[in-house]
Specification:
By secondary structure, the chain is an alpha+beta fold. It has two helices and nine strands.
Length: 157
C-alpha cells in the first residue's frame, strides 16, 4: 500500500478548506464556493447572513459589500483571508438610536462600535440586529478601510 505524504502547508490548506465548507454549508444547502450571504435559520427564527472578509486579487473586501436584512436577523462575518479584520460601524452615519443597540450587541468590542480583530482563518463574529432601527449601517475594517474595505447593511423592519 502506498501512502501520500502532505507538506504542513498542504495539510493546513486542506483543513482550512474543510472548515470553510462547514461555514458555507454543503452543496445541497446552496453552499457552493463563492455563494455570497448564505442564509440559514437561527435558533430564534431569525436569519443568519454570512459576510466574508477576504483578500482577493490584492484587494481587501467584504463580500457581499451590500446586504439587506430584517431587524432581528444576525450577521456573521467570516475571516476568510487577508486578516486581521474587524467590523467598525460609522457612528455619524448610523440611524438614530442604533449606536447603543450596536454597542450592546457587539460582544468583545475593542472600541466604540468596533468589534474584535479576527486573526485566525475562518474565525467568525456574530452581531444580532434585534431591535435595530431601520436604515443604512455603513461599516469598515479598521486596518483596511484606507484601501477600500468598506460595506453597508440595509436594515428593514
Amino acid at each position: 500500500m502506498q501512502s501520500t505524504v502532505f507538506s504542513p502547508h498542504e495539510i493546513n490548506r486542506r483543513a482550512n478548506r474543510a472548515r470553510l465548507a462547514r461555514v458555507r454549508g454543503d452543496r445541497a444547502a446552496g453552499g457552493f464556493p463563492g455563494t455570497p450571504a448564505t442564509l440559514t435559520p437561527a435558533a430564534s427564527g431569525a436569519r443568519v447572513h454570512e459576510v466574508r472578509m477576504e483578500l482577493v486579487n490584492g484587494k481587501y473586501r467584504y463580500h457581499p459589500a451590500a446586504l439587506s436584512l430584517k431587524a432581528g436577523d444576525v450577521v456573521r462575518w467570516v475571516n476568510v483571508s487577508g486578516g486581521p479584520h474587524n467590523v467598525a460601524f460609522k457612528r455619524e452615519a448610523l440611524p438614530a438610536g442604533s449606536a447603543g443597540m450596536l454597542n450592546t450587541a457587539m460582544k468583545g468590542r475593542v472600541m466604540d462600535l468596533g468589534g474584535p480583530y479576527l486573526k485566525d482563518s475562518l474565525a467568525t463574529y456574530d452581531v444580532s440586529f434585534a431591535g435595530a432601527p431601520p436604515g443604512t449601517y455603513p461599516y469598515a475594517c479598521t486596518p483596511h478601510a484606507p484601501v477600500g474595505m468598506v460595506a453597508t447593511l440595509i436594515v428593514s423592519p
